[in-house]
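Q: Sequence in, structure out?
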Amino acid sequence: MKITVYNIEGKEVGNTLLPKEIFDVKMNSDLVHQVVVSQMANRRQITAHTKDRSEVRGGGRKPWRQKGTGRARAGSIRSPLWRGGGVTFGPRKDKIFKKEVPNKIRKKALFMVLSEKVRKNLLVVLDELKIDKAKTKEMISILQKLPCKKNCLILLPTYDKKVILSARNIPKIVTMDARNLNALDALSSRYLLMPKNTIKSIKETFADKSPEEVPQKTENKK
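A: Exactly. Output:
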């Protein structure tokens, strides 16, 4: 499967092959939805927390005697019926939203998203992405010459401080190492921009190794 390769000037300089097992996978929206929901739940930060009647202050004694006062029975001022009392069914920090998804399913969903980007011409491949100085102006100049001017995820084969610093102040431009890529981040941006070396990094990180590529254990003969 071939895709056009651009240089940082926005000119076509050739083609490159995309691995079919990663960039040519049939879409299954239900599976992708399951993975994205689990990743959103796992990133959820729980901040809201209310105190129940066992955590609020006071209530060490009965407010008044059980009978003879003409008022309703009350056992504690910490009751949810009282002002300053505990909250019934309020949000709690101890609630767990985490959803487990098998690793194979997460990889499959990522491959489906990448394949859909290729089918819709939303994947842009560069021959290389090098910046001499970490300047936002230089990164903007490169992006304006490419088909992905905004709302773009830049996938780097390895950590590149200059590229990250150049792109961090541009709205809707995100940089990420290829080894940290997932379905949610890939879907959050419209375009994917990656140097040619990133394809190799994705294959090494996510693609299943064939039996020939797996190193065989050698037995020590005595």
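Residues 155 and 194 are 5 Å apart (CA to CA).
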